[in-house]
Amino acid sequence: MAQSSQATGGHTSIPALLQRNAQRFADKPAYREKEFGIWQTWTWKDVQREVNNLARGLINLGVNEGDFIAIIGSNRPQLYWSMVAAQSVGAVPVPLYQDSAAEEMAYVLDHCGARFVIAEDQEQVDKVIEIQDRLHQFEHMIYLDPRGLRKYDHSHLHDFRHVQEQGHAARDELTPELERRRAKLDLTSTCVMLYTSGTTGKPKGVVLSNRNIIESAQNSSEFDNLGPGEEILAYLPMAWVGDFIFSVGQAYWTGFCVNCPESAETMMTDLREIGPTYYFAPPRVFETQLTSVMIRMEDASRMKKWLFDTFMAHARKVGPSILDGKPVGFMDRLKYALGNILVYGPLKNTLGFSRVRIGYTAGEAIGPEIFDFYRSLGINLKQLYGQTEATVFITMQPDGEVRSDTVGVPAPGVELKIGDNGEVYYRSPGVFECYYKNPESTADTKDAEGWVATGDAGFIEESSGHLRIIDRAKDVGKMADGRLFAPKYVENKLKFYPNILEAVVFGNGRDRCMAFINIDLSAVGNWAERNNIGYSSYQELAGHPKVLDQIQSHVEEVNRSVAEDPILSGCQIHRFLILHKELDADDGEMTRTRKVRRRIVEDKYSDLITALYDGSERISTRTEVTYEDGRKGYISATLEIRDAAVQPDTTQKMAAE
Amino acid sequence: MNQMSTEGYTTADGRQIGGVLMEMKNITLRFGGVKAITDISFDIREGEIRAIIGPNGAGKSSMLNVISGFYVPQEGEVWFRGAKRPPMKPYQVAQQGIARTFQNIALFEGMSVLDNVMTGRLTHMKTGMVAQAIWKGAAEREEVENREVVEKIIDFLEIQAIRKTPVARLPYGLKKRVELARALAAEPKLLLLDEPMAGMNVEEKEDMSRFILDVNDEFGTTIALIEHDMGVVMDLSDRVVVMDYGKKIGDGTPDEVRNNQAVIDAYLGVAHD
What is the DSSP string of A99-144? Predict the structure, then answer.
């Protein structure tokens, strides 16, 4: 404890860091928000004043130490200050997802017993009012935007500015109390509680201490040399641990500036105007941006298109090497520099990435083409692997060791181990305190020695020391000969092809792997149109021999790439078929969030699986489908089964020798 | 309704409505031999949302054009803020504090949303053309002040994302919102909306209704609107004037109007002889 307190420079809480920043970076911008078309700026000194006024206002309203204060809204400086003000008075901020329905909010607000809610606008206020009868401990609500709220009953409703004014007016009486409470905060006190949106069961409240947040922020800032000059755009949900660590943890630790967009719709414009130096986005965002660039290039004049294609080809060849500081020939460098003037520079500017020094993506697998596209432009996009329970960071990619198929080396202070079933465990200063009011789940996740199970299966690559995540641990199995079976790993590789919408790989307990494929009707349909191939339905297109040829070549490419990995080479696909219908949530084959329900698909199409394994060349089948109005019908089809070329298995050979 | 005191009244949702802002007295409007409006009288009170409804060709738009000063009625008087209004040009009416939107959107298609909304501030600008061209001192200050007002309206109507987009590129529903923004930029005493929901889908209608109510609530703007969608009219307005064949056949709260036999006949169709 004493040691840690030294490690964090004696700053044992976020409010303490605010005091430090208000002195050290007094007139440096801390927050910006675009409002009324102009970027409004608050310096660290301003923020200290705002937070103190709000904190005194909260005491004035009767906030006690240990109270929970729910914070609901989009990324606004005032809501970030609310979190720090809550901490300053000894309360625990609980940011909620602003798009959750009233019902979901009811559970969380009731579970943590929040006495106070700070809400952004009428929409959020209405939701809380709707459920307030069921919340026994709820007392007061503070709102930011008074629009539409004028006529509401104000006995328990307060204007944010009014609370601040009251806090300012009572500064003489309340400052000693505020300072007393602030001085009590140490590394063990709770910094924030974040609810995980669990896929199963009710959300769990992850309690993170000041130690978790401050040490994780410090370690990760040092890892990437983050300094007070960074600019970030805060646009991801405030209830997400990543936003808390970037926009609060790291921002307060290093003293950099957090920029809040004007509205969700203006995010892209705001991104371009700010030009962040440090940027995080889930793979989906990068994918959407790339798609929109490609579509616009299709419509560009022939000269521009030629320039783009020529220089992008060159960028793909040498860009990543230049970024990693590897040796590249003089002529190649010259051509890249020219490309930078003509293509890469303007393109990065359009995307808002001109100044990005460090970019991160995480959350799910990112397609190698997408990843390489950004890196070849000279954008230092890296991957990290983390979760709420770890205060984000488990592994990160160091500069110069960036690859699309790994998630990096253990972050500073993190220890990793791989369980017998291949599951990844970690132990770090960021490991969460507990799940609030849920000791059973805490014990299930975190053992006595502090090791936490991630629920993901992976392995550490011996040559590089990088962690590679292959699948959810519960989906990973063994093949008949004992080799690792990781369906999701192969399915993801298949789904990176635009033609393939969905893939389901079978092979658990079997000697070979087989696959069902769903083609992407819009991508393949587009191709069919350009090649004058007529079709009337998904089923007809899916059965077209030329489509099968294409998919076969994709499968064989995937096999080659899977075979490169000795541990996973058993997962190569020997035979596959294209399903005669799209997997659909209405038929129970997928969840509403479009995740395949493996068991159900396996049962429903058992005849197809048998056919894949018994070597037949085609199979006739009849499948029940549910229409959107609930009626049921049948689709009959004869499917062609294709064999895919497989690479010789290196591990087996090695074993044989 | 006629017995209503000059001090105003309180609406069902508890809003306080003020005295008479505009009064139409025995208006008759003729185009050659055609009588578009026959002897119509009604008033619009401060702070209320007043609807004018009626079947096609009832004379609603003509009525709105009389209010906005575009048409000068042959008979009758228009009283605005306690004074009889002499026949005047539309721009003079605008200077008096009456702004409007149009049934068929009338925006400057090539200009950005921001510039379009800025044109709504013209009646508030005092510097001359030369001063504005030089753009120093007073002209610059004035532009900054006006821009501030405009930005608040852009924020209010949630059109920040299209601030710099040329109007021609916008979908219909957004253009309608931009038109409302331009009318609001004039900070009118009375806002005239000519079929604000025409051609919109359900979601766009809901948004627009929300904005109309918010404008009335936040800025206290008096609103007179023409609308076809009965559901919208009944939900939004405090009092409704019903017209048919250029005559007033009903006037009162939505409930009163809904139960008025003449109104029911006009809408459901009764043989006219």
Answer: TS-HHHHHHHHHHHT-SEEEESSHHHHHHHHHHGGG-SS--EEEES
Q: Does the beta carbon of B145 lie under 8 angstroms from any beta carbon of chain A?
A: no
A541 and A643 both lie in a single domain: yes
A266 touches chain B (CB under 8 A): yes
Q: Which residue of A has its CA nearest to B148?
A: A36
Q: Per residue in A47-91, pLDDT tens?
A: 999 999 999 999 999 999 999 999 999 999 999 999 999 999 999
Report yes or no: A265 at the B interface, CB cutoff 8 Å.
yes
Instruction: Count CB neighbours of A239 within 10 A.
Output: 23
Edge-first strand listing for the sheet containing A278-280: A278-280, A358-361, A381-387, A392-396, A409-410
Burial of B140 (0-12, 13-18, 19+ CB in 10 A): middle
What CATH number does residue A233 fall under? 3.40.50.12780
Q: What percent of chain A has pLDDT over 90?
A: 65
Please indicate whether, in this complex, the C-beta atoms of B148 and A36 are within 8 angstroms of each other.
yes
Residue that terminates a domain, selected from A223, A242, A274:
A274
Quote the longest CA-to-CA distance of chain A: 86
Last residue of a domain, one of A274, A299, A315: A274
φ and ψ at residue A575, rounded to 5 degrees: -140, 150
Q: Give the whole-angstrom CA distance, residue B49 versus residue B219.
A: 13
Alpha-carbon distances, residue A416 vs A245, A420, A472 (angstroms): 21, 13, 17
A512 and A493 housed in the same domain: yes
B156–A147: do the CB atoms touch at under 8 Å?
A: yes
**Residue A650 confidence (pLDDT) above 80:** no
Name which of B14, B154, B158 is nearest A37 (Cβ-Cβ): B154
Q: What is the pLDDT of residue A103?
A: 85
Q: How far is A265 from chain B (nearest CA, A)?
A: 6
User: Which residues in chain A are contacts of B156 at CB distance < 8 A?
Assistant: 147
When scoring B155, B174, B216 by the number of chain A Cβ atoms within 10 A, the one with the most, hence best to mutate, is B155
Cβ–Cβ gap A151/B217 under 8 Å:
yes
Residues A39 and A167 grouped into a single domain: yes
Side-chain half-sphere CA neighbours of A163 within 13 A: 31
- The pLDDT assigned to B2 comes to 41
A309 and A379 in a single domain? The answer is yes
- Looking at residue A252, its pLDDT comes to 97
CA gap A234, A81 in Å, rounded? 14
- The verdict on A211 and A284 lying in the same domain is no
| A530 and A584 belong to one structural domain | yes
Tens digits of per-residue pLDDT, A517-541? 999 888 888 888 888 888 888 999 9
Pairing verdict, β A618-626 and B9-10: unpaired
B chain contacts of residue A37, beta-carbon cutoff 8 Å = 114, 147, 151, 154, 160, 163
Interface contact flag, A147 B14, Cβ < 8 Å = no
Q: What is the pLDDT of residue B6?
A: 59
Tell me the chain B residues in contact with residue A76 when contact means C-beta distances shorter than 8 Å: none
Which 303-362 residues of chain A touch chain B by CB within 8 A? none
How far CA B221 is from CA of A349, A472, B47, B191, in Å, comes to 43, 58, 6, 7
Residues A285 and A255 placed together within one structural domain of the fold: no
CA nearest to B160 within chain A: A266
Which CATH entry fits the domain spanning B9-97+188-268: 3.40.50.300, 3.40.50.2300, 3.20.20.70, 3.40.190.10?
Answer: 3.40.50.300
Note down pLDDT in tens along chain B; length 273 residues.
444 445 678 887 778 888 899 999 999 999 988 889 999 999 999 999 999 998 888 889 899 999 988 899 999 999 999 899 988 888 888 989 999 998 888 899 999 999 999 999 988 888 778 888 887 888 888 889 999 999 999 999 999 999 999 999 999 989 999 999 999 999 999 999 999 988 888 888 988 999 999 899 888 899 999 988 888 888 899 999 999 989 999 999 998 988 888 888 887 766 655
Q: Where in the sequence is the domain holding A111, given as residue range(s)?
A: 2-274
